[in-house]
Amino acid sequence: MNPANRPFGIAVHGGAGVTPRAEMTPERERALRGALAASVSAGWAVLRDGGTGVSAVEAAIRVMEDSPLFNAGRGASFNRAGFHELDAAIMHGGTLAAGAVGAVRHIRNPIALARLVMERSPHVLMVAEGAEAFALEQGVPFAPASYFFTDHKWQSLQARLEREAKATLAAARAAAVQAPAFDPGLAGTVGAVALDRAGNLAAGTSTGGREGKLPGRLGDSPILGAGTYASNDGCAVSCTGDGELVLRLCSAKEASDLVALARRPLDEAARAVVARVAALDGSLGLVAIDRRGAMAMPFTDEGMYRGCAKEDGVVLVGIYDEMREAEG
Ligand code: ASP
Question: Is the pLDDT confidence value at 1 over 70?
């Protein structure tokens, strides 16, 4: 097929566990919709110009990392000790090349560092000080801890710690052995999946992780197969939601395998994966795309910040059930 006529497209998410409809203000909704549309447009422009899916995913995620509205990069959630530890992963569906970083503290765009791990290191996953030393060597932009600070995330952590302090020890013990109930306030991870004109899929995810997590905790986002996965044989997937459950279920790889091995249509595969998490009382949202350009964006809860565009460049954005054309 002439590359000019090949399908291409991008889908992004800005996290499951949205602000409940009753509490959403018009200003906040406008700001979120605008940021999601800007992310889709950045990725879409790369694809239109013949760029790779990996470049499109990185471009789209950078926009959301730079926005204080999402739990990634600037505006990331705080861990229990009151600082940020950021995780990200990126994967190429054609070659299965992948790179990921975990618990980095001073990297302005963790998705860019994940890509460099993929392209310029012999490894797949690097964490903490070692990952930052590699970043320094690669000339990646650093940012001071204050750059990631936002007052609303700080207040949210304080409120959480207060609530937890009031809980009884018995309840805390019970919570530690059961799958922790997912709190919508924790959400806001960002991710993107793309199909480029060369027919390659790509996926990426970036996050500050669960609010109030223990220092050193890694979630599903930087773990390939769990929160992030791409294979041209199946599909590209980026997850958001209950990371501890997604880590155990390998949700992203499961979706891709359902397409590649069980030959399930993308939409059915994506819904099956989300339903499995829901059956365990967990929360999950994901964006997925296959080689034909089919997209799926299912979620378990009231909504998921999301957006997409296909070849025609029409940008659709959704928060709750409906998807609407982006303004402007
Ligand atoms: N899945 C992310 C994590 O566990 C959180 C989220 O999606 O909001 O780190």
Answer: no
